[in-house]
Every structure is written in structure tokens, then in C-alpha cells.
Amino acid sequence: MGTRTQVGIVGGGPAGLLLSHLLARRGIDSVLIEIRSREYCEARQRAGVLEDGSVALLREAGLADRLDRQGLVHGGIYLQFDGQRRHIDFRELTGGRTVTVYAQTEVVKDLIARRLADGGALEFSVTDTAVDDLDTDRPVLRYTDAAGNRHEVACDAIAGCDGFHGICRPAIPPGLLTAWERDYPYAWLGILADVPPSTDELIYAHHQNGFALHSLRSPTISRLYLQVEHNEDIAAWPDERIWAELARRFGLPGWTLQQGPILDKSITPMRSFVSAPMRFGRLFLAGDAAHIVPPTGAKGLNLALADVAVLAPALDGLLHGNDKPAAEYSATCLQRVWRSTHFSWWMTTMLHRRPGADEMEMQLQLSQLRYTVSSRAAATSLAENYTGFPLTKE
Ligand code: FAD
Ligand code: DHB
Fold it and tell me: I need a surface site. Which of 156, 276, 307, 358 has the fewest CB within 10 A?
């Protein structure tokens, strides 16, 4: 079946979904294809922290009704190390900036509901996706829909929003991309637990046994993470072992970690990856398709949203005879990408125990942590990076 659209979007994660909405507000039509089912996309447990700029973007796009009602505004985080838990006060250090705890699952649900209500073309559970003719002004998107019909969509541009393992980045001829990559020798085991959080704000804990993070999803649901070994088998972590290890790493006299039924359990590898440029001809990459950060700085989701905030006006320009914003798209995004890549690497290496690390490395981490909580300059640096920098305006 041959059809036509202005922008073909590959991937129905936060980047692809928000892009289709931002384009629709500019009167630009798109077809979005996603290999997973709607239910799968809405249930996939991932990030939970939105920067101020991401909240403002969603609000300006008319997508923040539920976010404004249910998002939990946090004015800081705790850093725990060496038997102490110290607060970093974002509001005070940055002139009022905050972050909002609102799960990626909810962002995705809100976006899908809105696109469907607006009559957007979203195709879930597709197979055999392909992109072609990227260096012409009529690139093509091909896929088979859930009913088994093959489609060929002629586009003006294609947005590769298909995550790290997608097909768009590999469709760029070898030799035209430069990639920078770092794997970390550990992973995160994440749980969602049916228990009220034991903390009012997130706790990032450095411990002899490894890093731990206490986050939350609502006043009744906790989200917690433990550093585990690279390639760890989840079967090695029955619920009792997870709770015992979390209690050990967060342990402080007079404070108790509340425990409850575990609703979801998964292991996430840790990687830094940047590939540039984020464009080849009429293919534009956005979000995890172009870059990955380790989750310690809570940046992945925010970067995906920031990319498409730049991409929507760039595509609008391209489709209406102004090539300049599209020409600048990659360089504009990469500045933020590299800042977040550095911050995420810094938080990760300061807080995790590297297998084989000696006592010297541990002492250097502790010194960095003490400095971060005791120097206003160092604390401000963490606070402004964590809460994020203003979004590039159209
Ligand atoms: P994605 O959300 O990955 O969306 C890409 C979409 O493309 C997916 O729905 C995928 O099914 C689809 N797709 C793939 N291939 C194709 C194809 N060929 N055709 C069509 N569709 C395709 N960040 C944090 O800040 N904190 C966290 O705790 C955190 N945890 C994470 C845990 C995991 C397991 C992962 C993978 C990521 C995590 N992240 C976290 C990162 C954050 O979730 C991502 O940065 C964010 O999802 C990026 O959004 P995206 O839209 O670019 O990509
Ligand atoms: C969450 C995830 C993160 O990676 C992080 O740094 C903070 C919070 C979360 O899932 O809530």
C-alpha cells in the first residue's frame, strides 16, 4: 500500500510521541510506527525524573494536565556516604529550580492518549520496519502493520526515534558517523514496590557494597535501585535478598527502610554513547537512537524530550524552505547531549563501586562527595546540572 505523509516517525517512545504531537501543533502530519504493542509501551518501567525545562515543554504543548495534578515537585536530593545523609537544596542553590517526579510510563500514556484523541496516525505492533532513500528529498518508510498489510510511506523527512537498538542509526552509511562509547563494569537492578517511600526526596547512596538509589512513583509506590554486577542474573536476587541489601546500603541509625511487595524487577546495563552527527540527509535521529547516558543523573528521558523540542521547528523550517534550523539541529542538540553525558558519567563514577577498585579510589570518591556537600560552588554545580539547563527556544 503506497501512502504519503510529511514526516515518518520510527519509534513510539517519549521522543517519537512528543515529536508527532509538536508537529501536529504546527499543522504538519506524520505517521508514527512502533514495533511493540500500546500496552507494552505504557507499562515499560524506566525513568522517573523530569527537569524543569521538560515540565515547561510539556505544559506549553498542552500535555501537563495530569502531570500538574500528580507530579511530585522535589526541591533537592540527598547524597549519602560515610554514614551521613546530606541534603542538596536545589531551590536555594539555583534560584528556585526544582525537578518533578513523574514516571516515563505516565508521560507515554499521556502522549498516546492525546495523539489518539487528536486523530494522530500511530501504528503499534508493526514488523519489518525499514527506511530508504535517505539522501533524497523523498525518503521512504516501510513496514508491515499488525494485520499483515505491507505499507510504503513516501515522506519529506524521517525521524529516527527508535532507541539504541533501532534500525535508523544503522541505516546511515558506515564512515559517516563518529561514535564515542563507554561501558561501565556494573548494572542497576531496579524494583517497583507497593510501599510508601521511606524518604521525602531521592537518596543517592555511596556504599562499600555499591551504589543504591531510593526514588518513588507516588505517595504509596517506591522505586529503588541497587548496583549489581555486570551481566548479573536476576534469578540471583530473590526479593528478600534485594530488601536486605537495600536496607544495608541505606542504613542509618534511627531510620528504617519500609518494605513491601515487589511489583516489577529488572536489570539495566550502564553505558555512555554518543554518535554524531544526528542527521544524514533527510533522516534525523533523536533521543536514545543517537545517545545513551548511564541513569545516575536522571538525564535520558529529558535529553529525548529536549532533542525533539529542537527537531520540531527544524523540520517545520525544512518543509517550508528554511534549511537553517535543520542544518543546525545536530550541533544544537549535541551541546546539551555532551553536558548531560559528562554529568551522568561524573555522578556514576563518584557513586559506584568499581570492581577491583582499591582503597585509594574509594577515598577519592569520598573526598569528592564531602566537597560536593560542603562547598557551595560544588553543590551549585550538581544542582544546576541535575535540574537542567533552559531548553533551546524556537
Ligand atoms: P525509547 O524510549 O527507547 O523509545 C524507542 C521506541 O522505538 C521503543 O518504543 C521501541 O520499541 C521502538 N523501536 C525500536 N526499534 C524499532 C523499529 N525498528 N521500528 C519501530 N519502532 C522501534 N533514564 C533515566 O533517566 N532514568 C532511568 O532510570 C532509566 N532507566 C532505563 C531503563 C532501561 C531498561 C532503559 C532501556 C532506559 C532507561 N532510561 C532511564 C533511559 C530513558 O528511559 C530513555 O533515555 C528514554 O526512554 C529515551 O526515549 P526515546 O524515545 O529516545 O527511546
Ligand atoms: C529515577 C531514575 C534515575 O535514573 C534517577 O537518577 C533518579 C530517579 C527513577 O526511576 O525514579
Answer: 358
